[in-house]
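This part of the workshop introduces the protein records we will be handling. The question running through the whole workshop is how a given chain folds. To make this concrete, we reproduce a full record directly below:
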Amino acid sequence: MHHRAIKLYKYHQWANEKFFEHLKELPSDVYENKITSVFNSISQVIKHLYQTDGLWLSVISGDSFKETMSIVNKLQKQTKEKSLQQMQHLYDELSEQYLGFFEDEEDLDKEIEIDHPEFGKLKTPISKLVQHVVNHGTYHRGNLTAMLRQQGYPGVPNDYLIYLYKVK
């Protein structure tokens, strides 16, 4: 049986995919439209989610703070001026990296230590960090829904319970 963290991550992957598919059905300008919200555009939210997911994969993989920041800089450059379709492709690749990590990691409840220059050291299980990735994604998919509504378009149902019904 899969670990709960993997199940949660697969929900995150599914919910992101639902958003990509929904956004591709809308007029293309919706992705880049400048609006007054938490972010200035839907594209900024999508890029933020991707960069943050990449950051946390680096952390749970055991990279140092310096290595993780180097990866974040690379991800920021990589996402600059990317279309919705290009971002979807990047997300698909990153999801495969996460699934590869889960496959290789024998103990997702193993504690790792994070050393952050501002917040200090934290020992926490990998599974709790995966939960954070999923929670972060859920929060920002809520932002995306609000931003779509501001532009006159509906969001896309992506609650965890809907996912459970879909994968039963």
